[in-house]
Every structure is written in structure tokens, then in C-alpha cells.
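Pilot study result, target chain (355 residues):
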Amino acid sequence: MALQELPSAMRQLANRHARSTAVAIGQFPRRYASGQAAAVQEVSEDLQDLEPQSSLSTRFSPKKAAGFDPVKRAEGRKIELPSSRYQYRSPRYYRGPLHPHQPPPTSDPASRQFVPGPFSHTRLEQTFQSTIASDLMTLGYAHRPPGTVDIPKSDRLRTWDDSSPYHKNRPKRGPRGPEGVLRLIERDISWRNIPKIQGVTVHSMVKGAMDDSAYLHIAGMALQAVTGVKPKVFKATQGVASFGIRQGMPISLTCTLRNNQAYEFVDKCINLVLPKLKDWEGVEGTTGDSSGNISFGFNRDGALLFPEIEVNYDMYPPKMIPGFHVTIHTSATSDRHARLLLSAMGLPFHGKLVD
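Predicted structure:
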């Protein structure tokens, strides 16, 4: 008759009898397979791989614990880590190249200026790296045979005629004209200086803010939705009575986009907004500042075509949404190379192209 078929009282008596019999012959009951395997004289083939003694049967020895000294053990190590490994802290301020404490590079996670990411590139930037960059090198290639002699160019700065003793050792003068600013010299495109987008500036002059500050708040909400950057408010530096502008009046907003945000904004303008404009020929070829920066603008109707405003059109009063100017900053040294870059990305130009 099996033990499970007995009543509960009979099973308890049977268990007590078996336990007292095991104590009498010197065998203590163990609840692990290794102990039971050791108690069996004839070990089966299935239990030969089991260890003869379990780790649970080990006893705590106070004598061994009393002789353990962690400090002495650490001092006895022959190979140790440098003391400056965990004691180094990057300096808060940059104190020059000769200071003994130099901050780590910004790519190091220990740097105070470390910014993680970007972990993925935008679609336009991936297209630039895979296709546009190599095409620009081909389009801008200028062959120079070996032994070509460079034509000497005149000095860009004007020298003094030494008609006065005060002209001695004076620095050279700038170019003629009211600006007096030297423009960048166009460099040939090579693998070292392929033009690329460095940033985008979105600027809006809110005329309605002169009478009602609500226009400025609506314009700030619209620009922040379009660019994803909180706009910066600029005040008038001087008053203009004919336009009703007083000094210190908040009058304009500016957003500056860098890195992935700049590429995403340009991609959005080229592929989503500009194709929806009616009777739009393209960006004028005369735009640019002769330093590789191209500008164009959106009026109020063009600003309404951005998907961020179009999806929440009821949130903005239609007559209070302003237009804005967009300036694309590139690393090109001339407007010709900047137009070449933006044309490869899909931005059309029309009219006479001015170098």
C-alpha cells in the first residue's frame, strides 16, 4: 500500500518512524541531491556527475573571519591603478594651453561640454554624405597640370604712399567703399573643404507688435512650432518716429538652428513647403552676401503651408501669423559654391546668377 494512500495521521507516524531510524544509524536527512547520492552505497550512473558535498553544508568559521584584513590585502597587491584615474576632475574653466590641467575633449563623456548624439543622421544629411559630396567634387574640379605657375595677384589691402613721415610702420588700409570689409576668396573644392550646411537663421520682423504685444506672442509660437527652437526676442536699438518705433521696444524674433535641426528644416522647406507655393519661380540668383550665405523668405501665406502650422491651424489667428526670412549658412567661400550645394539638394534658382 502506497504512503500517499494512508490517512494524514498514519503518514505523520510513518515519517517520524523513518526519521528516528535514520538518526539511529547515523544518517541525517538531507534535502539536496548530492547528499542523498552520497548516502547511497551503490551510486547509479545518472548520479556519478553530481558533486559529493553541497555548498550549503559549509559552516561559518569565526577563526577564518577574524584573520581576514581587507586593508592588508589591498596593500599587498603588486599591480595598482594610477591614483589619478578616479581622482581627476576636469577643470571648470579653460586656463590656456600652458596650464597643467587641460580639459578633456568634448567627445569624452568626462567633459563638462559633452553632448550625447546624434545617433542617427537626417535623410538630407545622409544624401549629402553618400551622393552630393562626391558630385560637388566632380562639378567643382579644376585641373591644374604639374608645373603650372600661379599668376601673382595684387594686394587686397592698400598701402600708404609714404608721402608723410606718419605713414611709416602703419598697418595697411582696407578696401575702398563705405563697408571697408574684405570678402572671402573663393577656394577650389577639394575633399578637405566640401561645402556643407553649418546653420540656419530664421528671422521675423513683427510690425504689429508696435501696437499690440499679442502679435509678438503669436509670432513666437509659430516660429517655435516651425523650427523647434525657442525664439529670441530683439528690441529696437534706436527709435524711428516715422514708423512709430521707440527705443527698447520688442520688435523682432530670431531662431538659430544647428546640426540636425538645420538639415531637417532645409529638407522640410525644399520637399514640403516650396512645392506648394503658387507661381513661385525659385530663389533669386542675386541673393547672397558673397560669403556663401543664401537668403530667401516666406510671406504669411507661405508660413501657413508648414505642416506644424497646417495641422493646428485653428490654434493661430490667421491674420496674426507673420512671414519670416530664412538665411542658410554654408561653409562655402563664395555664393557660386553655395548655390551649387543648395541646387544639388533641390533648391531652385532663377534669374541672373551673380558670382
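One observation from the pilot: Strands lie at 197-205, 232-235, 250-258, 283-284, 293-298, 324-330, 349-350. A full batch analysis is planned for the follow-on phase.
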